[in-house]
Every structure is written in C-alpha cells, then in structure tokens.
Amino acid sequence: MKKKLLRVLIVEDSDDDALLLLRHLESGGYHTQHQQVISRHSLKKSLRNTNWDLIITDHNMPELDSSAVLSVIKKLNIDIPVIIVSGSIGEDLAVKAMKAGAHDYIMKDNLARLIPAIQRELREAALRQSQRNAEAAIQHLAYHDSLTGLVNRSEFEHRLGRATRQAKNGKAVNALLYLDLDQFKVVNDTCGHSAGDELLKQLSSLLYTRIRGRDTLARLGGDEFCVLLENCDLKQAKIIADDLHQIVNDFRFAWNTQIFNIGVSIGVVEINGIDMSPDEILSAADLACYAAKDKGRNCIQVYKREDIGLRQRRREMNWANRIDVALENNNFLLYQQLIVPLRGAGPSYYEYLLRLKDKKRVIPPGAFIPAAERYQRISAIDRWVIKTSFSYLNQLSRNRKDGKVFVSINLSGQSLGDNSLFDYIQSLLVKYKLPAETICFDITETATIANFKTAIEFINKIKKLGSLIALDDFGCGLSSFSYLQNMDIDFLKIDGSFIRNMNENPINRAIVESINNIGHIAGFKTIAEHVETKKVSHILKDIGIDYAQGYAFNKPRPLQPSNPALTEAVRVEKKRLRQLRT
User: Fold this and answer.
1) Contact 59, 66 (CB under 8 A)
2) What beta strand segments (E) does 256-331 contain?
3) Where are the beta strands (DSSP E) in 156-306?
C-alpha cells in the first residue's frame, strides 16, 4: 500500500525519541517530510517557512516546553494540530495544555494511540480548512461577480463612494468609465447563453490585464462594465478609454465555427469634487454611454452637464426609475374612450388608454412611453395593461346582462417581439373566461413595418385565436399601402395628424379619402382618430369612414377604480414582478 505523505514538525530534544516517533509513523503508513527543532527561534522560523500538517512536541525540555510551543503557534495565528507526546505529564498539566490549544496528549510508553490520534486530527483539520474555504468563497461572492470574478456592483458602488469623498475633500481627482458591449446580444441570440458567458469571461480577463493596478474593473450586470480610475484626471481617463476601446475592437470571439467582432460604447465622467453623489456620477456615466450608442455605437462620449442631449437622456432615465416604481406600486391607471360608429357599422366600443398616477396628477402616456421603450420597460407595461384589462372585463361580464363587452387594447412594437406574449394572452383569456372575439389589439403602423415578419406571425396567431387586430396611427408613411395586402387585420386607424384640421386642409382630406377607399377595398373597417369637432365628424361620415374617436364624442375617463377585479390584478402583477427580480 502506498504510504501517505505527512509533513511533521517534531519539537524534541532527544534524538532517540525523535527517531522512535518517525519509525512509528513509518510503520503506521506515513512517509514523512520532517524537521526537528529544540528552540523557540528555530520553531518560529520553521513555522514561517513550511506548511506543516502536524506538530508533535515533548512536554518537558530545557529551552522549550509544550506551553511555549502552543504560545508561539497562537501568536502566529496558525491552525495546525498539536499532539503532545511526553514521558512525564500529569493529568492537571495535560488538561491545562488541552485548554491552551493542544489537540491530544500521549505517553511515550503508549504510542499505540499515536496513529489513530493523528488520523483523527488530520480529518478535523481538513474539515476546518474546508469550512474556511467555503466561508472565503461566500465572502468572495459577496463582493465579486460569480461569472467573471470581477468586483460586483455592490462593492463597486462602495469604492465609488470612497472615491467621490476623496474628490470632494480635494485629496484626488478620479474618473469613471462606463462600458456597454455593442454586439453581445448577437452572440447570445446566435450561439446561446453559454457562448455569451464565455465571451464575458474572456473579455473580462483581457480588460483586467490592461487597467492600472490601483484601478477597479467591475461587472455591473449583463454586458455592462465600469472602471474606477483613481488619481486620474479627464485627459488621462480619455487615453485609458481609447486604449480599452481599441482592445475590445481588436478582440475576436470564436465559438465553434463562428467568429464575432465585439464593439463597445464608453461613457466617461470626471470625479472632480463637483457636488454629485455616487449614484449621480454613475447615472452620468450611463447617460454618456447611451449617448455614445446614439451616435452609432462603438465610440466614446465624455459627460458634460451642459449637453442638451444628455439632459434629455437623464430625464428619460429618471422616467425609467419612476416606471419601475409605478409597476411595483400599481401607480398605473386605465382610462377608456368611446369609439363610435358613423355609418351604422356596428356597436360602439371602448379603447383602453394608459395613464400614470403621480401624487395628485395623472400623467398622459406621451410623457413616459418613450423612456419605457428606450429602457425596455414597455413590455412589462403592456402585460400590466392586458392583465388589468382582462380582470376588469371579467368583472364586467359578471355584472352585465346586455351582452358581451368589446374593447381595444394597445400593444407596443417591443411586445410584438416577445415570443411568450401570445401564450400569455391565451392563458389569461382562459383564466378570465373571456371570448377572444371581444378583444381587439392595436399595433402601430411603424412598429409593424419595423418588425414586419414578427408582426405578421403575431397577427396570424391572434386571428387564429379569434381576436381582432387594428393597425394604429396609419398613414404616417404612404408607402405602407403596399403592406396591407399581406396583412390579415380588421381595422385601419387613420393617424390623427390627418384628421384634426382636414376641414381646412384639402390635402389631408384627400389622404383620408384614399386610406378609407383602399381600406374598404382590402376589407377593413376604418377608424378616424382625434376627431375634435362635430364639423370634422360630419366630413368623415360623408367620406364613408366607419368609426370615429375623439373629444367630439367624449373624453377619456377612468375605469371604475374600486373594482375588486383591479385589486386582484394588482396583487398578481406585484407577485410576478417580485419573481422576476429573484
């Protein structure tokens, strides 16, 4: 049987006794790497130079007894098993030695206990080391990203706070770089998340080798990174940003047979004592990074307070945060506006419209929808609208005896690209026991053209389900006429910009007439939006428009806020948001 290596330090002034111990260890199955010491100095030196598995010490020696050995080990803060092997130690001294840190004591005339004691203590030492390793790993994960090993967002924000305080106290000028990869989604979508993870690890390692030793590279999440540059002014920060930008552009990621080029957009902010909090500095760097993306991606943007575009971006980011709060706290509202028939084309029905409750104000969608689309919140809003609408309709259907309620609900272009949206709608129709034919989904013309293939697939599935489709804001681009022959829709909603003053603008009237004629030829019903006067409504009726919507008939008004169905929708939506965060 192969012998196990045992690195043992022997504190013993008798060479014969030391040799006897070594022979006993050899016969017990151990191959030893050993050293014999007899003084405090040699003990300290040996402990500092070698990682020993075990210490075996005599109790009584002229220069060094077992209590002195234990004292040295304690001062050096070393976790190592100590077994006292002595020819003369009383019970009281043995107990005292155990309390001081000895793990066992064995009489020299009874070495049969030595090997089992060593085996036990080595197992215990291994368990203690395993526990320390686990605790160290947990501690590391608390401050580092589990995928790349870089500093995580929490620790980075702590260091950013320290750098901000230094700048405010005039002790240093620092800088912050915000990096967002430009082609990461292509890799994820093409090759899967395993490839994306490998890309992040490779690129993280590459970037880490190029930052200065005192700087901090952190992964904030996804494909976003930050570099905190300490004792670095704006001029030097731009040089470092250029270097990192070039590194990413030169990087080629290979996965199976494919090779990808990865670009990066970088925002740069100087931390120079101006009264900005760490959150504001991080937000400013994020703003600059997004501005770099708006310039065409793969470039560098320095943050300047006076930049109008960056101020607009800051407003949008503030809206993104307010939208998150609104989703969490159910601060959205649904309004309804009547859509009336002009030519006996069918019954009136309602379009559900979104609003945001902000303290005592009700904010229209135009104020926050652009930010919701830019910062990827619009799909969550759409789902809130669908669930809340369906829940409300379910309650209405229980209370009404005059037939089905028909409504129209808006969907964004981003939601059309959500592969799970159709299943979500279908499941809610079943849950709330709603006839699919009572729901019309409005999708805008621009979103449809921008995502034409995806939009057509979604429309076809919705139509097969039994629901209806309206093409909203139609007419913004007359080239869109060519798309109609390939679309199975039910309503054309003519953009309100052609409707408002059509009684004074003959070109707008001609456009409305053309859209109406083509729509009818294609088999669609037509709806005029933003009808604000009775005079315009009469013209629309003469032209042959089927439906009209606008202040000429009624203003949007809120759904019944005390409806218990809405309360249930709120509860379910909050639960879903919590699950998404975890």
Assistant:
1) yes
2) 258-261, 264-271, 300-302
3) 174-181, 216-221, 224-229, 252-255, 258-261, 264-271, 300-302
Classify domain 153-305 at the CATH superfamily level.
Answer: Reverse transcriptase/Diguanylate cyclase domain (3.30.70.270)
| Cross-strand pairs, 468 | 440
The per-residue pLDDT for 449 is 67
Q: At what angle do helices 114-143 and 15-27 cross, to 10 degrees?
A: 80
Residues 273-315 have pLDDT tens digits of 777 888 889 888 988 888 888 777 788 999 887 664 556 666 6
| 320-581 and 4-141 share a CATH fold | no
**Whole-structure pTM value:** 0.51
Percent of the chain residues topping a pLDDT of 90: 36
Instruction: Give the whole-angstrom CA distance, residue 366 versus residue 375.
Output: 15
What is 378-430 written as a DSSP string?
A: HHHHHHHHHHHHHHHHHHHHHH--S----EEEEE-HHHHT-TTHHHHHHHHHH
Write down the pLDDT at residue 478: 47
Q: In the chain, what are the domain boundaries?
A: 4-141, 153-305, 320-581
Q: Are 429 and 457 in contact (CB under 8 A)?
A: no
Kindly state the tokens that stand for 246: 């070039």
Provide the terminal-to-terminal Cα distance of the chain, rounded to the nearest Å. 52
Chain segment 111-146, per-residue pLDDT in tens: 888 899 889 988 988 888 888 777 767 776 678 888
Q: Which residue has the higher pLDDT, 87 or 197?
A: 197
Q: Which residues touch 17 (CB under 8 Å, ≥6 apart)?
A: 58, 108
Q: What is the mean pLDDT of the chain?
A: 85
What is the CATH T-level fold of the domain 4-141, as seen in this structure? Rossmann fold (3.40.50)
Q: What is the pLDDT of residue 445?
A: 72
Residue 345 has pLDDT above 90, yes or no: no
Half-sphere exposure of 318 (CA within 13 A, CB side): 9
The third-level CATH classification (topology) of the domain covering 320-581 is TIM Barrel (3.20.20)
- Of 459, 407, 464, give the one whose Cα is nearest residue 432: 407
Q: If we measure between CA atoms, which residue out of 553, 551, 483 comes closest to residue 522?
A: 483
